[in-house]
Each structure stands twice: as C-alpha cells, then as structure tokens.
Specification:
Elements: E1 3-15, E2 18-30, E3 35-39, H1 46-53, E4 61-63, E5 68-71, E6 74-75, H2 81-87, E7 92-95, H3 99-102, H4 109-121, H5 125-138, H6 144-148, H7 157-168, E8 175-179, H8 187-204, E9 207-212, H9 215-218, E10 224-229, E11 232-238, H10 239-244, H11 249-257, H12 271-275, E12 294-308, E13 314-328, E14 332-336, H13 343-351, E15 358-363, E16 366-367, H14 373-380, E17 383-386, H15 390-393, H16 400-410, H17 417-430, H18 447-459, E18 465-469, H19 477-494, E19 497-502, H20 505-511, E20 514-519, E21 522-528, H21 529-534, H22 539-546
C-alpha cells in the first residue's frame, strides 16, 4: 500500500472558545499505481483530508495526535518538517483547483517548472529549462517552448492547469493529489485534463488521489471511490461496485442530482429526497407553449473589441458576429459554448451593459440599442442578470436586507421602506431562505445560499427577462439541482423568460426550449433543444456532447 490514512481527525480553531470539526475519523488507502477518488459536497472534508497528507493545512488546524498517515512505514503527521519538505514535490505532488492562485504571476511558466527540478533533482538552469519544455509537451500543450516563456496570464485556463500538472509531475512523484483540477473548466477542456492525467499516470506508473464533487466525472477515472459527507466516510468501494449498487442514500443522491442528457424530468432529485426517503415527482416536464410573438429578439448582433498589440499597434477582436434569435415570453433560450465563444458578451449586449458594434436588440418591440440613457432606464428593471460568482456579485459590506431593498428604492418599487422591507422578506421565502437572513451578511452563507440571494435580488426588480450567466457552474451537483429546480419554479410562477448561458450542454438541455451553440463569436447551430442535442448537425456540437462525463454502465436506473 502506498498511502494509508487511519482515523484522521482534523479540527479548526475559529476563536478563543470555538472549534469546528472538519474531518472526523476518516480512513482510506491508496494502492500503488491506482486512482482513488474522494467525492463529496463543499465542506465534506475531502480537501482537508488530502492536504493533511502533505501537511498543507492552515495555521489554525488541529490534527488529533492519534491520527496516522503512513507512507513507507512512517507516519507523515509525525515527520520532521525538513523531511516533509523533501517529500513534497518529489514523492508526493499536488495540483490545486485554481491555477492562477497557485502560479506566480511575475515569473514565466517554464522558470516555475524549472525551479522544482533544480530544487529536488539538482539540475543546472539550462537542463531544468529544457526539461520544463519537455514536460509541457507531455501534458499536451501546443508550442511548448513558446508557452514556457509565457507568463500565467497569457495562458488559457486549460493551459494553466496543464502547466500546474507539468510542475507536479516534474520529479516523477509516486502520488499525485489532484484537488478539483477540472472545476469550472469547459467540458472539452475538462475532458482533455482527464485524458492527460490518465496518460501520465500510466506513463509514470504513479498513484492518483482525485478530489471532486461530481460522481459522474470520477466514474471515468477512478479505481476506488470514497464518498464523504460532513467530515465522515459515508461509503467506500471499487468504482464498478459503487456505481452498480450504491449502498448509501447520500451516494445515490449524488448520482441522481446531475441532469441526465437522455431525459427531462419535471424536477431534478435533490439531496433531501434521498436522505428523507421521499420520492421525487416523476414524469417528463411538458413542453412550454410556443408563441409567434418574440419578447426578446436579436438581429445580426455584433461586437468588436480593440486591443493593444504593442506600443502603437492595435488589433481588432470579433467577440460576437451576426448573432440572431427570437425568444418568446415564458420560454428559455440556452446559450452554450466554450470559454471565449462570446456567450457572456452576448448576454451583456442584450442588457446593453456593453454597446454593440452593429445589429439590433428588440425588447417588446423596441430597439434597446437605439434608446437614450434616459429611455433605457425604464427597461433596466425589466431585464436582470444572475452572475456566475455570487461571492463577487454581492456587496460584502451590505446586509441581505440592504442588498434587496436598495435596488427597489432606486427603481421606485414600493411606496415606502417598510413596504420594501416586507417584500424583501417575501423574496427570501420564495427562494427558500429563512426570514432571519435579512439581518445577516453574505459571508455568513454557503455558495448555494449566496446564489439564492443573487436570485432574490434579481426578483426584487420584478423582471420579465432574466439572463443566467453560468449561474450554477461553480456549485456542487446537489446544490446545482436545487437551484435549477428553483429557477424552474420561479419561471412557472412569474412567467419569466430566461437566457441561460452555460458551457455544460446537459444542464442547458434540461433548462432550455431552444439552444444556440456558439463558437468564436458565431452561432454554429440553433434550434429546439431536443433537436440540437439528439441530432446535432455541426461537428463542434457533437464534440461538446462527446466531452460530457458519462456515468458508468452500472448507474442506478432511476438516477
């Protein structure tokens, strides 16, 4: 056995008299040349368990002295720091979730990889830089010599993650810990990263500890799966056995929460359905009635950006090129594509948060692009947006009450503050948050709860059109299911019209009536959701479908 974790217990000191238990008696093994996946929601303790192996925990962490992490017959938790530093990067390496926060922004990528080689393998500078280029090539980066000379901000998200992997495997470690390495990446880039990890594991015959919140994803790469919740192991089994016959209700919930590509149920199963033994409402969701009159229409919408390409030179980027669609009231248009495809820019153009280069945006018969700022103010309330990151879109210094009441006051909704305050409380009820949340601050809520707050703020404007810009992409699959169900309930209750932007075609298909597929700023496919997904015409659409995580064959039939 390469690594044995035995009765791991980790707590965090939050104050003079407050201690929170994060990991409570976790045990698992990582065998030689195998892949073990730690799976669970945010806060389940999976990352804390993995970081305990290399002792990369915050200063306020308290590890129980009875816990053991055994490597080559020695307890890593009791090893001197000097020996542990020698192991990090050489025998045990880590690929973190967010490469931009892990890579040094002022040092070239190749030099950062070379530093690891010089430190652990005592290579010369020239040897280390040459090997860094070879490592980048092994991770599938095109033009590795040029990328080695580039700075992190000059690489795409997928290239940054490949650079982190190259750095992690530089010394041919025996164990690679990959902590959510594909979270928030496009499905195609996610597929590439998984393929790179699988290839490198085979090439170097190393073991892989893969951390994720998505069971469908780990089903493609893991030999053994450990399911965690609230700091405890709920289930541990070989991947085939776990997917074929999961024993724990929590495991079954994680399997069922992700939208299926071959069905569109009335509601997605959520965690409480399985924990409480409830049966979700069955049957397919009926199609929404079509209308010939569009509420929102784009006609040959285009946007160019001019970027500096040197001291005097400039170059023009076509972010959106001649996009046209029609969207009726009460229906959902899905916009899908990879990062850089122009889908977010399209959403900003529809709200006129970015001025279009050419084309028209007609809302209820009026061209928004032709209106003055004064005329446009009346439409601002009717078109609202839910952004991807609720951590960044909510003012951390405002209470929830102020976050909800202030936009109503600005737009003259409600006769007085008392009426607006009562409406804010009603909005919290509608999005499933307790009434006492009105006096709390955003940092006191989980990611899923913050996204509900963002939805409540959007509803405060009584909008007719809501643009959901990657609004569930960073959420756990169980929380994602809850938010998607909420959006559907609100659409039915208030006859809302959605523009649903995402890189995940399975989620887009579940939510949408029509879909447009964007690539390099252009629409390459447009039609009814079922037609686009079941009989795609364009090769790019087929690639997006092929890149979706596939649940192993033994998956629950009802999932």
């Amino acid at each position: 056995m390469l690594i044995s974790v035995r009765d791991l217990r980790v707590s965090f000191r939050l104050g003079p008299h407050q201690i929170a238990e994060a990991v409570r008696g976790v045990s698992f093994d990582v065998a030689e040349n195998s892949t073990v996946a730690l799976v669970g929601e945010s806060g389940s303790g999976k990352s804390v368990s993995a970081m305990s192996i290399v002792r990369l925990l915050p200063a306020n962490a308290i590890v129980d002295p009875s816990s053991e992490i055994v490597y080559q017959g020695r307890n890593l938790l009791a090893e001197p720091l000097a020996r542990l530093r020698a192991l990090r990067g050489s025998a045990i390496s880590v690929v973190f979730q967010e490469p931009m926060s892990s890579l040094n922004p002022v040092v070239a990528v190749g030099a950062q990889i070379a530093e690891v080689l010089r430190l652990h393998l005592r290579m010369t500078r020239r040897q280390a830089l040459a090997r860094a280029v070879e490592l980048l090539a092994e991770t599938g980066i095109a033009e590795p010599a040029q990328r080695a000379a580039a700075y992190p901000h000059e690489l795409s998200g997928g290239q940054q993650q490949r650079a982190m992997i190259a750095m992690a495997i530089a010394c041919r470690p025996r164990l690679l810990i990959a902590d959510e390495p594909t979270t928030a990446l496009d499905v195609t880039v996610q597929r590439q990263i998984l393929d790179v990890l699988a290839k490198l594991r085979e090439t170097y015959r190393m073991s892989l500890l893969f951390i994720s919140h998505d069971l469908a994803l780990v089903g493609e790469i893991a030999d053994q799966v450990v399911v965690m919740r609230e700091g405890k192991v709920r289930e541990s089994a070989p991947a085939a056995a776990l997917f074929g016959a999961p024993r724990d209700a929590y495991t079954r919930a994680l399997l069922a929460c992700r939208p299926r590509f071959d069905a569109r149920p009335r509601r997605l199963p959520v965690l409480d359905d399985f924990i409480d033994g409830r049966i979700a409402q069955g049957g397919e969701r009926p199609a929404r009635p079509a209308s010939t009159e569009p509420l929102l229409e784009a006609v040959n919408l285009s946007k160019d950006f001019e970027l500096r390409a040197g001291l005097f030179a400039r170059r023009r980027i076509e972010a959106v090129k001649n996009v046209s669609f029609r969207l009726a009231r009460g229906r959902t248009l899905g916009v899908v594509g990879e990062s850089g495809s122009g889908k977010t820019t399209l959403g900003l153009l529809l709200m006129r948060l970015v001025d279009a280069t050419a084309g028209k945006v007609c809302f209820d018969g009026d061209d928004l692009l032709a209106l003055s700022e004064r005329q446009l103010a009346a439409y601002r309330r009717r078109i609202q947006v839910i952004f991807q990151n609720p951590y960044a879109s909510l003012n951390p210094r405002f209470t929830v009450g102020r976050i909800l009441v202030e936009p109503m006051a600005i737009h003259g909704i409600g006769a007085h503050d008392d009426e607006r305050f009562e409406r804010a409380i009603a909005l919290l009820d509608q999005v499933g948050l307790p009434r006492d949340a009105i006096h709390r601050y955003p940092h006191e809520f989980s990611g899923g709860q913050r996204q509900r707050l963002a939805i409540a703020r959007c509803l405060a404007m009584r909008p007719e059109v809501v643009i959901c810009d990657e609004s569930v992409s960073a959420l756990d699959v169980s929380i994602q299911a809850t938010v998607l169900n909420l959006l559907l309930d609100l659409q039915e209750e208030f006859d809302l019209t959605y523009v649903f932007i995402s890189h995940d075609l399975a989620v887009v298909k579940y939510m949408s009536d029509e879909i447009i597929v964007m690539r390099d700023g252009q629409v390459v496919e447009y039609g009814p959701a079922d037609t686009v997904c079941e009989a795609p015409v364009h090769a790019y659409t087929r690639n997006l479908i092929a890149a979706l995580p596939r649940m192993p064959a033994g998956r629950l039939a009802q999932a």
